[in-house]
Amino acid sequence: METQKFFYSFPKNESEEVRFSVRRYKDRAYLDLRVWFEPSEGGEYRPTKKGLTLGVEFLPELRKALDAIPDEALALVEQ
Fold it and tell me: What's CA 38's distance to the chain center, in Å?
């Protein structure tokens, strides 16, 4: 059985948002960063195939990567 808990989301555009969640599937825990969309006919947002799923053991490395982005991103923009 799969369980999922959402921790953070932000809008990507008018009809999509990016959601960060942790889910359990087949006795393993996963980090999930995925694009969700609002159906044209309305209703609740649905997940797309656009995203990344990693085992929770990668969370420390993901945090390091996110912390490293601001300086690198600013350097790229300034070029």
Answer: 16
Query: How do residues 43-68 score in pLDDT, each as one tens digit?
Result: 899 999 999 999 999 999 999 988 88
Query: 25 phi and psi, to 5 degrees?
Result: -145, 125
Superfamily of domain 3-78 in the CATH hierarchy: Transcriptional Coactivator Pc4; Chain A (2.30.31.10)
Which tokens is 61 given?
């490395």
**Dist CA 24 CA 2 (whole Å):** 6
Indicate the pLDDT class of residue 79, thresholds 50, 70 and 90: low
Using CA atoms, how far residue 76 sits from 64, 67, 69, in Å, is 19, 16, 10
Nearest to 56 by CA among 27, 79, 36, 19: 27
Q: What angle do CA 74, 71, 9 make, to 5 degrees?
A: 85
Q: pTM of the prediction? A: 0.77
